[in-house]
Amino acid sequence: MESVSSATESATGNATDSGGAAPFPSAPSPDQRPGLDWRIRFLLLALVWGLSFLFVKVSGEAFAPLQVALGRVAFGAVALLVVLVVKRDTLPRRPALWLHLAVAGFLLNALPFTLFAYSEQRITSALAGICNATTPLFTLLVAMTALPSERPNRNRLAGMAIGFLGVLVVFGIWNGADVGDPLGAGLALTAALSMGAGWVYVRRFLTDSGHSSVSLSAAQLTAGAVELALVTPFLTSFPHAFPLAQSLSLLTLGTVGTGIAFLIQYGLVRDAGATVASMVTYLVPIISTVAGVIVLGETLNWHQPVGAVVILAGAALSQRKTPSK
């Protein structure tokens, strides 16, 4: 999802998040000290984000896609608001800043979370996780289009070409788009595009705002929750039941996969650096695939994991710094 490293790092500030929850983990407090070793937190973050696609799938068995997205954003917002209170921090107050946060909340949370929830009604959670791996490529593509400072270079162009070739491999284009449901895969890719645009928007309008990362992210999730709350009651029916497994999946998806994951990411960037933190991106589709196959009994065509490797290779190349002459 929801990657930071050289090219993408300069374009987005931080786009590691597969879930789109936390675009502001770059301003650490000097008095903070790590608890768990950063390697453990690295693996924990990859696990949390990788399992998010499984939780979306399970939640969708009882709740409509918009309800899944609303619950995810709302529970994530509550988790960060609690942290905000504990830290005695405050939400932003400037109306102009809230307008930008509303746009970021739409692009990074409300829209992509809804699209992923819809897509997973049509495709496997494993395939959705693979499609999410294209987010760094879309981020770079939008950045080179929208930000004058982000110029194409050999590595970026080659990386994007390889990455999008990987998308064709995932789709099994020689078999007529053998992904089960092209619309579902298209929705997942559109979600990745939305997050890519969101990271660039954050870089353009929300950096150097004078607020903490927790404050901005809590505000962003709150804005996204309000946006979804305004439309969900009119487009869905109230759930007839709240099955335990599906309800717990949605609660975990929001509080852990969207809220607490930000805190892990924030500390990881602080303690290990943005480049190291960005490598979480390469583990997320692996975990989402393993979880989908083992827990949900999903099946994959051979070309889908192969395509995922090609996508990740392209993303890695696109983020590699070009040697200075």
TrEMBL record:
InterPro entries: AA-Vitamin_Transporters, EamA_dom, EmrE-like. It is found in: Membrane. It is a multi-pass membrane protein. Gene3D superfamilies: 1.10.3730.20. Keywords: Membrane, Transmembrane, Transmembrane helix. Residues 42-171, 183-317 form the EamA domain. This is Permease of the drug/metabolite transporter (DMT) superfamily.
